[in-house]
Automatic annotation (TrEMBL):
One of its GO terms (molecular function) is sulfotransferase activity. Its EC number is 2.8.2.-. This is Sulfotransferase. It comes from the Eukaryota. GO terms for cellular component: cytoplasm. Keywords: Cytoplasm, Transferase. PANTHER family: SULFOTRANSFERASE SULT. It holds the Pfam family Sulfotransfer_1. It is found in: Cytoplasm. It comes from Podarcis lilfordi (Lilford's wall lizard). InterPro entries: P-loop_NTPase (IPR027417), Sulfotransferase_dom (IPR000863). Residues 58-307 form the Sulfotransferase domain. Residues 1-34 are annotated as: Disordered. Belongs to the sulfotransferase 1 family.
Length: 315
């Protein structure tokens, strides 16, 4: 996988939606930096040399997603499989502490790299990075990658609500402004289109299990069994059924180890929007206007014309 050297720089003003320039960011909301044209948190940019030199190990499992594509869901599924359905073990820490987020940086807290380096093998790690920004060692060590993709429209809606309540990312502006920002790929971790296509292509040459959010929603047991096979775990049917039950949205939204209930209000204001908001397929229909949908579909067809990748927009 090609590796490039990147220069960390501030994202241009064009990268911000209307009214979201530096002076307009409320409550000290940060702007994004930029690496090779991909918007990322400035703290991540400043940590970039350490992230790029991160040393993966052959038995690492890397959970990879575009933001708001079911990351916490697949993390909980993987952990329950690894812990063989032992609920007590899965309550040992919040899910975001169980799987170090390799590009996470928010001084003075330990960085994702620090957390990963302190973790004994075998490690399960997490990233939102597109393929071209992933540390080279993951490819060199022939690691296993578990990718979950979610349809672009629902990703956009979920990301919009996340940015409304998270204080450590730029404010999204109005829905109309955010619609434009997302379509232009000027959100954290860059364009959805390039992200899902890049990982789809990577599966042809690397050990990538590529799953779809909508498939997990439709038939969770079948998709959980795919994950089990991929990571080399054999569990009896009763345990699999238990995992299906305890990783359902209804159970996870009330699980303080998954729903970010302990996160300070200075980081996430869950009264604005819960971290686990709906977990459905097709919520975009409650947000997109007819005109937005038509425009999005035209743009989508153009940007996805060069891939065999297809998505379910509603169930």
């Amino acid at each position: 996988m090609k590796q490039v050297q990147f220069e960390c720089r501030r994202a241009s003003k064009r990268a911000m939606p209307t009214g979201q320039g530096k002076d307009a960011q409320p409550e000290g909301r940060p702007e994004l930096g930029e690496l090779d044209g991909i918007p990322l948190a400035k703290a991540t940019c400043q940590e970039w040399s350490r992230i790029q030199s991160f040393q993966a190990k052959p038995d690492d499992l890397l959970i990879c997603t575009y933001p708001k594509a079911g990351t916490t869901w697949i993390q909980e599924i993987v952990d329950m499989i690894q812990q063989e359905g032992d609920l007590e073990k899965c309550q040992r820490a919040p899910v975001h502490h169980r799987h170090p987020f390799i590009e996470w940086a928010r001084p003075p807290q330990p960085s994702g790299v620090d957390q990963a380096n302190a973790m004994p093998s075998p490690r399960t790690l997490k990233t939102h990075l597109p393929v071209q920004l992933l540390p080279r060692s993951f490819w060199e060590q022939n690691c296993k990658f578990l990718y979950v993709a979610r349809n672009a429209k629902d990703c956009m809606v979920s990301y919009f609500h996340f940015q409304r309540m998270s204080k450590v990312v730029p404010a999204p502006g109005t829905w109309q402004e955010y619609f434009e920002t997302f379509m232009a790929g000027k959100v954290g971790w860059g364009p959805w289109y390039d992200h899902v296509k890049g990982w789809w292509k990577a599966k042809d040459t690397h050990r990538v299990l590529y799953l779809f959010y909508e498939d997990i929603k439709k038939d969770p047991k079948r998709e959980i069994q795919k994950v089990m096979q991929f990571i080399g775990k054999q569990l009896d049917e009763a345990t699999v059924d238990k995992i299906v039950r305890h990783t359902s949205f209804e159970v996870m939204k009330d699980n303080p180890m998954a729903n970010r209930a302990g996160v300070p209000i200075s980081v996430m204001d869950l009264s604005i929007s819960p971290f686990m908001r709906k977990g459905t397929v097709g919520d975009w229909k409650n947000h997109f206007t007819v005109a937005q949908n038509e425009r999005f579909n035209e743009d989508y067809q153009r940007k996805m014309a060069d891939t065999t990748l297809t998505f379910t927009m509603e169930l």
